[in-house]
Amino acid sequence: MIREGLLNTLLMLGLLAVPLIAQAMGEPFVITLATKVAILALAGVGLNVALGLGGMVSLGHAAFFGIGGYAMGILAAPVQAYEPLMTWPIEVPGTKSMPVIWAAAMAAGALAALAIGALSLRTAGVYFIMITLAFGQMLFYFAISWPAYGGEDGLSIYVRNGFPGLNTLDPIQFFALAFGLLALALLFAHLLARSRFGLALQGARQNPARVAALGIRPYTLRLTAFVISGAITALAGALFADLNRFVSPAMLSWQTSGEIMVFVILGGVGRLFGPVAGAALFILLEHWLGGVSDYWKLFLGLILLAIVLFARGGMIGALAGRQVAHD
Amino acid sequence: MTDPVLAVHDLSVAFGALKAVDRVSLDLRPGEIHALIGPNGAGKSTLIGLIAGGLRPASGRITFLGRDITRRDTAARARMGLARSFQVSSVAPDFTVLQNVTLAVEGAQGRAYGFFMPALSDRSLTDRAAQHIARVGLLNRVAVPAGDLAHGERRRLEVAMALAQHPKAFLLDEPMAGLGPDGAREFTQILDELRHEAPILLVEHDMDAVFRLADRISVLVYGRVVASGGVAEIRANPEVQRAYLGDETLP
Amino acid sequence: MSALLLIEQALNGLQYGVMLFVMAAGLTLVFGVMGLINLAHGSLYMVGAFACAAVAAATGSFWLGLAASLAAAAAAGALVELTVIRRLYARDHLDQVLATFALILVFSEGTRWLFGSFPLYLDIPAGLSGPVTLPGGLDYPLYRLVLIGIGLAIAGGLFWLIGHTRLGIRIRAGEADREMIAALGVDISRLYTAVFALGAALAGLAGALVGALQSVQVGMGEPVLILAFVVIVIGGIGSIKGAFVGALLVGMTDTLGRFLLPAAFGHIMDPSSATSVGAALASMLIYILMAGVLVVRPGGLYGRA
Amino acid sequence: MAGFKTLAAGLCALALATAAQAEPLKVGMITTLSGGGASLGIDTRDGFMLAVKQAGNPDLEVVIEDDQRKPDIAVQLADKMIQSEKVDVLTGIVWSNLAMAVVPAATAQGKFYLSTNAAPSALAGKGCNPNYFSVSYQNDNLHEAAGAYAAKAGISKAFIMAPNYPAGQDSLAGFKRFYEGEVVGEVYTQLGQTDYAGEIAQIRASGADGVFIFLPGGMGISFVKQYADSGVGLPLIGPAFSFEQSIIQAMGDAALGVLNGANWSPDLGNDANQTFVTSFQEEYGRLPSVYASYGYDTANLLLSAMGKADVKDADAFRAALKEADFASVRGDFAFGPTNHPVQDLYVREVVRMGDILTNRIVGTAMEDRGNAYEGECEM
């Protein structure tokens, strides 16, 4: 058994060290993989706010992930075509600036989460799982069949968006951005869990009737958490689209929702660094198994099954033992 | 006579064909303990639920501090100062005693949306929580998860949470259920002090405690109030004897 | 448009709806009785279709294939219940989602391993192919009429099973109170295996029946699974009656929406963009229906919540 | 299967950079080998590897990876192949949306991309690139063939149908470009739709005398079975994708007599094709599909260019590719000005030969057809 804090530190140091070593050895693709881990972990951190703190099992977070991606595509694509984003009622140019895109992605994700959450949170338990799934599908089909933004072909941008002072085309510099945002999000999630809001939200997860009797509306708490969660996941989506320089409806598919949830559960639900461990393990498995057999998903499924059946509390739970109550 | 803190007027609710609460009117006056007794299934817990806000009445009104609260939700009623305990212990089981009571203090302050305001390192929250925990004698158990507490301790934790709300009225649903004779005696003492904070609407099966504590008693049978009055009056009421107490001799 | 076309579309919606019901019934039973959310239900649909196609190809008989689909899906269901699912009853929904998500991967790739990546051939049985002329002069495929009949018969059978048999009484008791049924001396784990296998068999049957009309391929179960979720959310989880009403609603809405919406948009825009915009909206229609139902009744039409 | 994988040296993400060696041409194939669309990718790979095996050229190294039909995976595989494997040429993508995700970035980094199938209009027009060659066709071609031939086949009032996504929209536009009859109904279906009863009812009510469909993969199987069963019985025409070797077996007799526009058929009489069909059957025990033929042609094109120029000399290699000096299974083969083929387009009919269903050419729809987007390309 290792203390959870030490484990988390090792995890983050590992995620930081792998691309640095890869850089030194001239293996840029490994840096790309580490960037993918950081971005997917960020999406997981977003989901974990809803899932771990709030107890909301959302199987529709691909909606926010995809919305973040499309925010990137819709803002950046007009720039490369030398066209304005919109001309009516006022002319708005597109942008290739990452900070602007991130803000737009988070705003769009938050708005979508507000709408989806407001309806879905009227229900609970298994209804909530299925409804979030169905809303995700609704956006997925919409994105495929709506012709304006490329439909199933998606939107390609040929050059990665820019960040002041950095060359984002350099894999290691883009990794630094993704890693920095992941660290920020982890810090935010940490503060949130220990805040007044976090206390109330976790209370509402355990006993909503009691929290209501204390004068705090569980619905409003959860909706707020869902919106925060949607915004973080949308930010991850914008970064993911930038990593691939491409966005398509595949980001909105329900398999994506399932995978984001897998990161969170693999790592350990409600553990701050769970999504980081989960995403790292998932990507490692995907690339290692993918090289072993065409039927690698069969083995991935068996491994997932073994983890959920026999390693409760996820990886961090297995390594660090029972979660201690919040200090 | 002062105005009642809490009053229900002609309150009714039905579950299918069953009239769980049938045109009930009663009130709670400052400083008193008003006990609600009756056989199992008489509708006592349903009535508490209606007053606290978990259930919606089919007809009738509820006023609290002079205002009609019939259409307000649970949280709004709680913020006005209506504190309740549940028939089955209701706490956040993974939270420690301190976390549970801190949450109650937070609710009373109406500031649950501080995203960057740390909760458990904020002395203005935890000191107050500790005071309430001390009141119920759980100070040596602050760091224990509520789920690991003994039954009686959890009951006291609920009282501490209710106290933290700075209530204008308590709704206590069988707070002494399952406590055993020693626990019940101790708890009676706590409730006796509690009445100085705010009046109590008390649902209780322990008749010793009821007769020792109550200023007034209302008897609920099949959803209706069949008798209401002072302790002696209710003891003597033949209808109560027959309908509720049966052949048991009263203490 | 003609009344005949509308009637034909309504029949199509009905046929689509009853097949969705057969699929959704198992899902809603398993949730109602065991409180389990099973994402792998679509995989059992696929197992049924593959078993039917394989046996029909080997023996030349669709009906043997159909029997095989029932047996294979029930066996797969029982096997999965005994090895994996029963460890999940006491877990929260989260673990159930992850474990059954993993099962989808195992089923899909396992099937691909066994049968290859190419779609299998499965045709409508000879006696049921081709159209028949209905009163009013409408030519309608006989097989689809048979599907409607089978679906309605299964619905009737399920209502009877739940309402009038010992198993049904146990199922209803199990929904109400797990401890009580255990106290009655019923072997609860055998009951659970039986209910899960029953749900699996229904999914497999739906897969085989619909597989004769469609492409039998890996991944065919997931779109149907999500539709089945929509159905039981609309109907109220755990309610067979709700699943039936929900399935018909979804079937009708989807079929008529795909047909009427582009036509409606044709009145206000040019035909090409009307078909495209109308089709885009039609694909979202059932989800809008679901959202609408939930606004009015958060527990679904016949839900207990 | 695993054999090809072992060709992918340094596959492990953390493996050391492979030691320097004699510089062969390294080609990276990204195609769909798992999940729903795997049969197309497997055919592409098998056709390509058959030609590689027949050539036995030790200087050609092939790395094959599975894109799972996911654009983001395809992009990452392309990054990996370019950054880590240091491939010179990319190929193999089946789907247009994946091609749109990979090709622009790959050609922008100076790599060659040879398309074995997907050739979306954006890459033929405004997005064209001198390093991008489509060996197969331009996406619209096979729809154009169907459109050009439909009137000859007696279809004067057509009902046309495709899924509601960009390739579907391009398909209907392609059909209408050379169709001389009247379009009486135009319907977009949902991508991945499995039940077409509603559309068939509309066909029945439309008064059409023929139906054009573009429904690739499982969608086509579902439609054709249901259409045959409905008794509507109007002639059916479409592009070859919907009536491919791997698909028509699953349709069964329902597919008999369906016409489809194609640029290749197993019964094309040229020597290269006869060799290809025979050796493919010997090697893999099944008839090749168009995807296999494109994979085979692509490999042979690449081998022919390797014989003429070193890939490190991009201009020379590009010129060598452009000459297209290889024996195509399609007979005459040449690249047009925008690196898309100029070729004859045929119409085939699904027929039964013994136990299996296959296609047979029934007529030529267009001769020396290029594509509709050449004017938009500035290369």
Automatic annotation (TrEMBL), chain A:
<keyword id="KW-0472">Membrane</keyword>
<keyword id="KW-1133">Transmembrane helix</keyword>
<feature type="transmembrane region" description="Helical">
    <location>
        <begin position="297"/>
        <end position="320"/>
    </location>
</feature>
<keyword id="KW-1003">Cell membrane</keyword>
<feature type="transmembrane region" description="Helical">
    <location>
        <begin position="62"/>
        <end position="80"/>
    </location>
</feature>
<feature type="transmembrane region" description="Helical">
    <location>
        <begin position="172"/>
        <end position="193"/>
    </location>
</feature>
<dbReference type="Pfam" id="PF02653">
    <property type="entry name" value="BPD_transp_2"/>
</dbReference>
<dbReference type="InterPro" id="IPR001851">
    <property type="entry name" value="ABC_transp_permease"/>
</dbReference>
<feature type="transmembrane region" description="Helical">
    <location>
        <begin position="260"/>
        <end position="285"/>
    </location>
</feature>
<keyword id="KW-0812">Transmembrane</keyword>
<feature type="transmembrane region" description="Helical">
    <location>
        <begin position="219"/>
        <end position="240"/>
    </location>
</feature>
<feature type="transmembrane region" description="Helical">
    <location>
        <begin position="100"/>
        <end position="119"/>
    </location>
</feature>
TrEMBL record, chain B:
<dbReference type="GO" id="GO:0005524">
    <property type="term" value="F:ATP binding"/>
</dbReference>
<dbReference type="Pfam" id="PF12399">
    <property type="entry name" value="BCA_ABC_TP_C"/>
</dbReference>
<dbReference type="Pfam" id="PF00005">
    <property type="entry name" value="ABC_tran"/>
</dbReference>
<dbReference type="InterPro" id="IPR003593">
    <property type="entry name" value="AAA+_ATPase"/>
</dbReference>
<dbReference type="InterPro" id="IPR051120">
    <property type="entry name" value="ABC_AA/LPS_Transport"/>
</dbReference>
<dbReference type="InterPro" id="IPR003439">
    <property type="entry name" value="ABC_transporter-like_ATP-bd"/>
</dbReference>
<keyword id="KW-0547">Nucleotide-binding</keyword>
<dbReference type="InterPro" id="IPR027417">
    <property type="entry name" value="P-loop_NTPase"/>
</dbReference>
<dbReference type="InterPro" id="IPR017871">
    <property type="entry name" value="ABC_transporter-like_CS"/>
</dbReference>
<protein>
    <submittedName>
        <fullName>Branched-chain amino acid transport system ATP-binding protein</fullName>
    </submittedName>
</protein>
<keyword id="KW-0067">ATP-binding</keyword>
<keyword id="KW-0813">Transport</keyword>
From TrEMBL, chain C:
<feature type="transmembrane region" description="Helical">
    <location>
        <begin position="70"/>
        <end position="89"/>
    </location>
</feature>
<protein>
    <submittedName>
        <fullName>Branched-chain amino acid transport system permease protein</fullName>
    </submittedName>
</protein>
<feature type="transmembrane region" description="Helical">
    <location>
        <begin position="191"/>
        <end position="213"/>
    </location>
</feature>
<keyword id="KW-0813">Transport</keyword>
<keyword id="KW-1003">Cell membrane</keyword>
<feature type="transmembrane region" description="Helical">
    <location>
        <begin position="225"/>
        <end position="252"/>
    </location>
</feature>
<comment type="similarity">
    <text>Belongs to the binding-protein-dependent transport system permease family. LivHM subfamily.</text>
</comment>
<feature type="transmembrane region" description="Helical">
    <location>
        <begin position="273"/>
        <end position="296"/>
    </location>
</feature>
<keyword id="KW-0029">Amino-acid transport</keyword>
<feature type="transmembrane region" description="Helical">
    <location>
        <begin position="101"/>
        <end position="122"/>
    </location>
</feature>
<feature type="transmembrane region" description="Helical">
    <location>
        <begin position="142"/>
        <end position="162"/>
    </location>
</feature>
<feature type="transmembrane region" description="Helical">
    <location>
        <begin position="14"/>
        <end position="37"/>
    </location>
</feature>
From TrEMBL, chain D:
<dbReference type="InterPro" id="IPR028081">
    <property type="entry name" value="Leu-bd"/>
</dbReference>
<dbReference type="Pfam" id="PF13458">
    <property type="entry name" value="Peripla_BP_6"/>
</dbReference>
<keyword id="KW-0813">Transport</keyword>
<feature type="domain" description="Leucine-binding protein">
    <location>
        <begin position="24"/>
        <end position="351"/>
    </location>
</feature>
<keyword id="KW-0732">Signal</keyword>
<comment type="similarity">
    <text>Belongs to the leucine-binding protein family.</text>
</comment>
<feature type="signal peptide">
    <location>
        <begin position="1"/>
        <end position="22"/>
    </location>
</feature>
<dbReference type="InterPro" id="IPR051010">
    <property type="entry name" value="BCAA_transport"/>
</dbReference>
<keyword id="KW-0029">Amino-acid transport</keyword>
<dbReference type="InterPro" id="IPR028082">
    <property type="entry name" value="Peripla_BP_I"/>
</dbReference>
<protein>
    <submittedName>
        <fullName>Branched-chain amino acid transport system substrate-binding protein</fullName>
    </submittedName>
</protein>
